[in-house]
Amino acid sequence: MDNISDATKGFVDLRRHMWMEGVEVDLRRLLWQIAVTGKYISAKIDESNRKLAGLKNIYGEDQLALDKSSDEILLNQLKFSGFVREYASEEQATIVPVGTGAEKYFVTADPLDGSSLVDTNLAIGTIIGIHDEPVLEGGRENMVAAMYITYGPLITMVYSAGKGTHEFVLNREGEYVLSEENIELKEKGSIYSIGGLRKDWTAEHTAYIEFLEKEGYKLRYSGGFVPDINQIMIKKGGVFTYPALKTAERGKLRLIFELQPMAFLMEQAGGMATDGNRDILSIKPESLDQRNPIYIGSRYEIEKAKEFLNT
Ligand code: F6P
């Protein structure tokens, strides 16, 4: 689609944009329904939900009541969507069949990523992947769309249905309106965002980070994957990494729920995502909760990461 002028962007809502982009009709209905759940989830983020509820998720991590309710909201929405066969969520131990078995799409969700940041009032988010084959099949060719929603001072939503990556802002009338079409990362950025303790990094990863520091990259790390990726997306470059650690050689972040949807969105914006050797989207998951190291962002930094990790 021709780039829309700044003056008209505020009038292009999500449904109209997907229609203008020629996104397949069921996929655009599904994406719209998921974007709507972002409004319901954001409505749940209030004072009563800020504190840990003493709950643990299936991985033994602290869970807020908000994590659980975000998952329920999504699951309910998808159950009645008519387009979804299976729902795989970071909050569920197994894949949940939600349709009759004839539906086209398989959805992955991290319903509320970064919920440990809720009490500090930093931004948090929802991450969605949409596949047209069962999610454990993996593969770039089976992923048809991805989306994330950020709950910060503004609620923003970034989606791709394989035709570029686009940002929308939820306006006061409750509509997602286009704010940036076809986000295009520069070849090279100026920020880096790194997880894991320095004492646990490998020698290769340490050399890579020292290289970035010598080149003058600025540290930007909030501890929330969604806002940290969003920063690279909106600033048009830089790198986020949660590397392999001496104490956790697969890193921390989950391939299916977190890494592959973000890799899809980043690639569609002209960026890259690797675990050091393989493109994140080319990794076939061995299990639902698989973790992988990640280097994601603009091309220069990711190519450099591959060089340093393979010396
Ligand atoms: O997976 C949950 C998460 O909070 C991500 O959103 C974030 O990138 C990462 O963990 C932060 O981990 P750490 O607390 O080790 O920096």
Relative strand content:
15-25%
N-to-C series of helices and strands: HHHEEHEEEEEEEEEHEHEHEEH
CATH class call of the largest domain:
Alpha Beta
Give the beta-strand count.
Answer: 15
Give the uncertain stretches in residue-range form.
none
- Please summarize the sheet with the most strands: 8 strands, mixed
CATH superfamily of the largest domain: Fructose-1,6-Bisphosphatase, subunit A, domain 1
CATH topology of the largest domain: Fructose-1,6-Bisphosphatase, Chain A, domain 1
Radius of gyration: 18 Å
- Read across the widest sheet, the strand sequence of neighbours is 4-3-5-6-7-8-9-10
Any descriptors?
311 residues; alpha+beta; Fructose-1,6-Bisphosphatase, Chain A, domain 1; D-Maltodextrin-Binding Protein, domain 2; 2 domains; eight-stranded mixed beta sheet; 8 helices; binds 6-O-phosphono-beta-D-fructofuranose
Polypeptide structure, described:
Helix 2 runs antiparallel to helix 3 (25-44). This protein has 311 residues and is α+β, with helices and mostly antiparallel strands. The strands form three sheets. The chain has an eight-stranded mixed β-sheet with strand order 4-3-5-6-7-8-9-10, sandwiched between helices. It has a five-stranded mixed β-sheet with strand order 12-11-13-15-14, with helices on both faces. The chain has a two-stranded antiparallel sheet with strand order 1-2. It is globular and about 50 Å long. It contains eight helices and 15 strands. The mean pLDDT is 93. The longest helix is centred in the first third of the chain and has 20 residues, at 25-44. It folds into two domains: 7-180, Fructose-1,6-Bisphosphatase, Chain A, domain 1, CATH 3.30.540; 191-309, D-Maltodextrin-Binding Protein, domain 2 (3-Layer(aba) Sandwich), CATH 3.40.190.80. It binds 6-O-phosphono-beta-D-fructofuranose. The site of 6-O-phosphono-beta-D-fructofuranose has 9 residues, from helix 6.
